Amino acid sequence: TVEDPEWTRRYHSEDPEEKAFGARAVITMANGKVIAEELAVADAHPLGARPFEREQYIAKFRELAGGVVSSSEQDRFLDTVQTLPDLGELGELNIEIDPGILATAPVIGEGLL
Prior knowledge:
alpha+beta, two-stranded antiparallel ribbon, 4 helices
């Protein structure tokens, strides 16, 4: 594994049209043949070739939860999640910071990622 400065730059980009979580793989076969493939954005990503729709996310959830979470618990969870857009008061969980205070907040150069 080798870090590529361009991939790192795109990963940290603040421009959603440029931000990428992809990778480039280069494989050298025993006979010397080189196979190289690159994918900047997963096909299922909103900016990908075939963005997932809600049904596909639900199917992925069920596939990953299968054998770990019972079907009835999956149903209960999904039923609850489906009501989130109707829970206006849920938005009250977010705090708002005065823009003047935010503008004077210290900037931390190095973060966890």
